[in-house]
Design brief:
Blueprint lengths: L1 H12 L6 E7 L8 E7 L4 E5 L2 E7 L10 E5 L10 H9 L3 E5 L14 H19 L13 E6 L1 H9 L6 H11 L4 H5 L10 H17 L12 E7 L18 E6 L11 H7 L4 E6 L17 H7 L8 H18 L2
Parallel strand pairs: 1-4, 5-6, 5-7, 7-8, 8-9, 9-10
Antiparallel strand pairs: 1-2, 2-6, 3-4
Helix pairs in contact: 1-10, 2-10, 5-7
Length: 339
Amino acid sequence: MLIKALFLLAACLSPVLHAATGLITIPATAQRGAVTVFYPASGQNQRLNKVGLPINALPGAAPSAGNGRLIVMSHGSGGSPWEYADLAGVLVEAGFVVALPDHLRDNHQSAQDVGPNSWRRRPQEISSAIDAIAQDARFAPRLKLDRVGMYGMSAGGLTALTLAGGRWSGAQLVQYCKENIRADFYACAGKVFQLKGGMLDRVKMALVPLILRWRFNDPQWHSHHEPRISAIVAGVPYGAAFDMHSLAQPKIPVALISARQDVWLRPQFHSDAIRRVCASCTLLHDFKTGGHGALLSPLRSPLSGLAAQLISDPAGFDRQETALVNQKISAYFQQQLLP
């Protein structure tokens, strides 16, 4: 009942809602992947099916006046724009244009570069997505791109924190996994190996750090500066690869979202570790009963195997809380980006 009451209150405090959520895709180029754009439009949303997920939007609609601000999003490993469509719709209702680039070779169609190979490219792909909006005649005249908001979830949260001034390295990831493979196995192994409680679990825990050392033991620190981004929300972010000192004083306002039942990126090693060093970071929300997939909306269902273990909602989790958090994210960006 409390969640429902807070959701209704957040909805009442929102500005005038826009009639429809326009939807277009800016095609990929040699330098970047496709950019999916949600935006304020006139008309009535249609019920669409995107990779098996129900989406409410109006494809190809002419843009209408919004609040003049852009939000860019960075999806998680192997993700797509469609798992973030509900949040995008809430942001569009508040007047934002929302751009979601496909991260090359780390999306729902190709996962060959999941991990540090993708992480190195992602911040530049976010910058390229802003450039694509700036060069698009449908949106450029309606937007001021001096203050752009960014939302990232999971690996996208690492991207967001990199753009906030953080630096990370493959060698830091390798060292972390060497020391914490048992306590935070899936942050290191991803969906490659599954612990099943048998004798082979020890072999897997010994093998994963060796594989990571072979593939990613690069001491170079990676960072990226994008002056147009001026506010960030990082949801259940991958934090263990960072030099934590680099996150102590972010260059721009940062809000964090954590999930107590996250078994993929256990909060004590990721979002909580960031909060311990970042006194200025805002804890926007802490899902007490939510897992790693609590922010994905709509959520793919049914899931099976390891994906279900890592992403599915824990028993008793109420998805009205996700809807409330979407409103809180929108309110945060309105506070940070609007006059």
